[in-house]
Amino acid sequence: MKIEEVKSTAKTQRISAHTHIKGLGLDENGIAIQMAAGLVGQEMAREAAGVVVDMIRSKKMAGRAVLLAGPPGTGKTAVALAIAQELGNKVPFCPMVGSEVYSSEIKKTEVLMENFRRAIGLRIKETKEVYEGEVTELTPVETENPMGGYGKTVSHVVIGLKTAKGTKQLKLDPSIYESLQKEKVETGDVIYIEANSGAVKRQGRSDNFATEFDLEAEEYVPLPKGDVHKKKEVIQDVTLHDLDVANSKPQGGQDIMSMMGQLMKPKKTEITDKLRKEINKVVNKYIDQGIAELVPGVLFIDEVHMLDIETFTYLHRALESAIAPIVIFATNRGRCIIRGTEDIASPHGIPLDLLDRLLIIRTLPYSRKEIEQIVKLRATTEGLQVEDEALQTLGDIGTRTTLRYVVQLLTPAALTAKVNGRTVIKKEDVEEVGALFLDAKSSAKILTQHKDKYMK
Q1: Which residue has the higher pLDDT, 311 or 88?
Q2: Where does the AAA+ ATPase domain start and stop, copy by copy (predicted)?
Q3: FRET label pair with 76: which of 250, 322, 360, 361, CA 20 to 30 Å apart?
Q4: CB contact set of 400 (below 8 Å; sequence gap of 6+)
Q5: If residue 141 lies in a helix (H) or strand (E), which one and from where to where?
Q6: Which domain holds residue 107?
Q7: How far apart are CA 53 and CA 59, in angstroms?
């Protein structure tokens, strides 16, 4: 007989390089706290980013751009992600890398425009007639199939909804029963049904059932107040790119040929400028009528020196457009040749006319104390225990090499400690792992010393 352990269905969060960042870590006066919200040091850069966040919130930043410039591993991406966390999840944040524009399927400018549109949100407010409440009964009523045969069909569905004010029984169309099944609605769930379209939205389980033992992490919601039948303001958040994609797909029929046609199409299709202009017209009309509100988000372009002279020129035009997001560039290059030109050198590999438009935020290398604090923070995020002596050793290695290299050593050191039968990382584990792996500087030194032994 085989006994298997039941695994919990709760999702485990994968830890990435910037999982620990929760915000910019500023106090109420906008002054950076030395270590807060997952960020350490870089006080000047964080305070500057705080000013940028305030400008975005007061809608004084649209069509402008910020450049984060500093050596590798000084927290440029971390500051950009912290800005996104400060703005909240309702503001669209679209990250991309400069080299993404070199796609073999679509034009460079199309990739840029697509990401620009992803970073602009539209908040649509609609007043709808809805039936809302906790489901008390859900009974499909079956009748003989009019087509003949032995099968039965659902003629209508009876649903009971309860709110804090009262209860109501509704007799609904069978098509709504299918929507209820798709949303996996059961008795005890809080739902709302739109009176006009018949769309069903499950909001969560009623908190009267919160004591039940549930394997899945269920979201409990309070019992709705007011009547079952009411007018409700529904807010939808979409990006302009979502609207582009929805309108660019061919509205084919349900026959097999149009289905095949959609399958045969290549994955990426270019959205025409004409279509975008039409969508902009409709969006502007909605904004004028007060139905919708534009939410300029953030487009983060990392490794911006990878863009070429053509894309920089296109960026100029895109930044000047009436509908433009806030663009944050990041680069670790000093003075270098602009890609796509033969001999035009410029700071950060960005043309001077575009540099003039940017607010530049500088990030500085970390001190030894800051490296130790960051390593400690990463160890906590990854669930590792590190002795103080081992932390000091990692700090030493960090000042000699780079912060990124030291953070990479944490997991191998934890595995070495485990092999030696410990749960805590000690100094000898760090030294052992440090002797096994090379950092970039050591590797370059060895290459210089033994260059005759390597192929040219």
Answers
A1: 311
A2: 62-365
A3: 322
A4: 441
A5: strand 120-144
A6: 35-119+297-362
A7: 10
